[in-house]
Every structure is written in C-alpha cells, then in structure tokens.
Amino acid sequence: MFDIVPSPVKNFIDTIFNAPLQWLTLMQQMLNNASLTAGKGINLNNYFGWFSYLPSSWRLCVQSVIASAVLIVTLIIVKAAWNMYLNVKASAKWW
Predict the structure, then answer these.
(1) 95, part of any domain
(2) What does pTM read for this prediction?
(3) What does the angle CA 6 – CA 11 – CA 12 come to, to the nearest 5 degrees?
(4) Using CA atoms, how far apart are residues 69 and 77, in angstroms rounded to an integer?
C-alpha cells in the first residue's frame, strides 16, 4: 500500500514522527516497569520502622493510604501523557 510513496518522503516523515514515537515507547516501558514494582506490594517495615509499633489494622490502613496515593499519582501521570499525546495529535492535524 505504501509502495507509491517515494523513499525520501517516507524517510522525511519517519524522521518527523520518530521522536514522539520513541517518547511514547519509553513511556509505555516506564509504565510497564511501574506496574511490576507496584504488583509486589509495599512492605512498610522496610521503609518506616516506626510503623511496626502500630497494631496490624492501623498498618493496613496506612498501607492502603500509601497505595491509594501511588495509584492517584500514576493516574495523574497517565492523564498528563494522554493530554500531551492529544496535543501532539492536534498539532499534527493542523499541519
């Protein structure tokens, strides 16, 4: 289907869209790595020794709050990346 496009034009288009594609690929890899780390769970005893003095129900509550904060920050980052993608897409449509 793309045999009718001359190779210099194809190479020029590839150089234009190569940087955003590399950035999106990097974001995808970073999000995949973040999900692997978050899937293991957070052991608060390794980071906050003074939480170990709390009863187990309070430790679970604090752990849930931290997990919720991590989830919200991840969603904010994904939303910012999606908005940047839409802005790049809109600017490419303008051309």
Answers:
(1) yes
(2) 0.46
(3) 100
(4) 12
Q: CA-CA distance, 56 to 40, in Å (whole number)?
A: 19
Q: Is residue 68 part of a domain?
A: yes
Summarize pLDDT for 31-88 with one digit per residue, the tens: 877 766 555 666 666 777 777 788 888 888 888 998 899 999 999 999 999 999 999 8
31 near 78, Cβ under 8 Å? yes
Domain span at residue 93 reads: 55-95
Structural domain tally of the chain?
A: 1
Tell me the two tokens of residue 11. Answer: 């190479």
81-95: b (≥16 Cβ within 10 Å) or e = beeeeeeeeeeeeee
